[in-house]
Design brief:
By secondary structure, the chain is α/β, with parallel strands linked by helices. It has two domains: 115 residues, Rossmann fold (3-Layer(aba) Sandwich), CATH 3.40.50; 197 residues, Rossmann fold. The chain is 30% helix and 15% strand. The protein has a seven-stranded parallel beta sheet, with helices on both faces. The longest helix is centred in the C-terminal third of the chain and has 19 residues.
Length: 353
């Protein structure tokens, strides 16, 4: 049977696997390169299957036999999906965040959930600054102008990072690394975190401040929080009404941390001068290979053609690629397999509470 990415899928598991100790692991949202890596990493006693599809909706007979389900952020693990998997004993996500998993439904079934908490603080932090520098120097508009054969600099005046105040929202592993990079640019760093680590802030010369002060003093706001019921739409109309006029917003965490309608209104009235977004609230509504628009570069096709943020002239959006470096992906795949093996040995690691 052909996959959407070419090649063949693994043969269907037999109803009764005669191999002693065989563990039936279903990996979903796996491209050809990642599949080759995972096949090499999986112990010989495992019986892995791979699906290129983002959502494990189509049941080819494997669902009822799956013992371990390994997913990525674009594959929601719902109560309905769990009902199709009566043999399921573990959910392993190849991500730090778990907002795509119905944890309550897993708890009811007694199914543990494990994640990859620290695959690449440097990777995401570096992408944060890639977005910031691109916004600060109008790189997309400048490239588009050069491609048209125009080398006029007028209308492309940017701003320096040195001396600017960066407000880091969420001061964990990634937020700490963002602060380190910011200091290299000569920036002043403020941090807000519901669970602050004062020792980390002191060691880097970061000022931990309250929510109101962060909004009022920051020239640039950068989001590095997990998505929880408490943090959903943290940046809403009320928050944007209190920001320093002309603030730049960066989000490489989760799209739903921002009320997107409120952000559009803040952009339109100038409260937010620009935004660099690697995540959107409803990015799962687009197929992973579907065109998402061209951020003002003249593309009129695809899911992004009607999305107000993707089409906004002062928004630079990337399709959730902040994690996507060779080094980080290798760590993610290795740790995902290690997490499954640790659980199988009776010593689970990185379990989500």
């Amino acid at each position: 049977m052909n996959t959407p990415l070419g090649g063949t899928v693994s043969p269907q598991w037999p109803a009764a696997d005669s191999v002693a100790g065989a563990l039936r692991v279903l990996f979903v949202d796996v491209g050809p390169e990642d599949r080759a890596t995972l096949e090499a990493l999986c112990p010989r006693t495992w019986r892995p299957r791979f699906r290129a599809e983002t959502l494990p909706d189509a049941d080819d007979g494997a669902d009822a036999l799956t013992q371990v389900l390994c997913v990525f952020i674009r594959s929601p693990v719902t109560r309905e999906l769990l009902q199709r998997m009566p043999a399921l004993r573990l959910v392993a996500t190849r991500s730090a965040g778990t907002d795509h998993i119905d944890l309550a439904a897993c708890r009811e079934r007694g199914i543990p959930v494990v994640h990859v908490p620290d695959y690449g603080a440097a990777t995401v932090a570096e992408h944060t600054f890639a977005l910031l520098l691109a916004v600060a120097r109008h790189l997309c508009a400048a490239r588009a102008r050069a491609l048209r054969g125009s080398f006029s600099y007028r209308g492309l005046t940017g701003f320096e990072l040195e001396g600017k105040v960066l407000g880091v929202i969420g001061y964990g592993r990634i937020g700490t690394h963002v602060a380190r990079i910011a200091h290299g640019f000569g920036m002043k760093v403020l941090a807000f975190d519901p669970h602050p680590r004062p020792e980390a802030a002191i060691s880097l010369g970061v000022d931990v401040v309250g929510w109101s002060e962060l909004l009022e003093r920051s020239d640039i706001l950068s989001l590095h929080l997990p998505l929880t019921p408490e943090t959903r739409h943290l940046l809403d109309d009320a928050a944007f009404a209190r920001v320093k006029p002309g603030v730049v917003l960066l989000n490489t965490a989760r799209g739903a941390l921002v009320d997107e309608d409120a952000l559009v209104r803040a952009l339109d009235r100038g409260a937010v001068s620009a935004a660099g977004l690697d995540v959107l609230e409803h990015e799962g509504g687009a197929a992973p290979e579907a065109p998402m628009g061209c951020a003002g570069l003249g593309c009129d096709r695809g899911w992004g053609a009607t999305h107000p943020l993707l089409r906004h002239p002062r928004v630079l959006a990337t399709p959730h690629v902040g994690f996507n470096t060779r080094e980080a992906v290798a760590r993610i795949l290795n740790e995902a397999v290690d997490n499954i093996a640790a659980w199988q040995s009776g010593q689970p690691q990185h379990r989500v509470a």
